Amino acid sequence: MLASIETFDDQVRSVQGRLVDPVTEEPSTVIAARLGRRLADARKIASDAAALTVRIVAHEAAADEAARRLRAAEAELATLRQLAGAANDSELEHAIERARQRDAAATEIARLGHLLLAQGDGRAEDVLRSEIAGIDRDAVVARLTELRNELASLGERRETLSAERARAEATLAEMRQGRDAASKSQEAEDALADARATAERYARLHVARVLLRSGIDRFRREHQGPLLRAAGAHFALLTGGRYARLSVDQEAAGRAVLLAIGDDGTECPVEALSEGARDQLYLALRVATVEDHAAHAEPLPFIADDLLVHFDDGRAAAAIALLAQLGRTTQVILFTHHDHIAMLAARQPGTVVQNLPAPASTVTPRAAPIVVV
Asked: pTM surpassing 0.70?
């Protein structure tokens, strides 16, 4: 045993010498324990070094793959720049955005095209445009107004019928339950008596309404008819025959409404006319009123200031012709600051165009024309 201990001690001292460990007087067991710990640390360091080597190899492979993908992406970008005619990445991004907008616009155009086909009963766009070209805008507006009014009336009627149905269903449910049959019978008798009284009252009111309506119509024919006919003739002149005359109708509520009768007999309410047609209608009514007044009283001059400022040349020429016609009844004076109105008036027989000098305080460098009809 002693020999083994000595051999162990010699081996420990030998290993200590090879490791260049300072020679101390420590027991061999202490030195061996310290060397064991150093061996464990060395083995752990070696294991960590091997793991790091593996990770470094993996990172190098990933870096090579990233470099390869970067080169491929740069090649694709170069190809895209060449196809788009872009000098740099900024111009390429702008071209991509334009392409995205183009694709979105193409998608929207396709969607609208399908919608147009669906709403146009499968007819092509050029066919629809040719049909629209032959439609009178005023007639479309008038028809749209009629449809809206009809839709509102149908909505009210539906609500009324829905309420009546609810009441009928409630009454039917009570009758099926057999409750208070005698009371219901009495209510039916009372309702029948009320109906008879109501029918008699309705008959009297209906006769009175017919008589009153007849009186109103007679008064309208005697007092309003000539004025309305004159205004209708003026309106036909102003619109070039698009509207033949004017008519007055009465709504369900008893309110009188003015209608423009087209050359094809269609009726158009005033609110359904275009803005230009309404201006022509108001001018026709004013001229007819002035003529009616002049026929029963001393004529007074008709003076207007830029009355035709919102008329195009065709409407303005028709209006000047109407004012020239009014000039046979009373003097008409039309002031305007627009040269084309004065030129149109100069072409109208029986008119006199005079240019007034501009006031000294005005900033306008030219004189303001005055048209006297």
From this structure: no
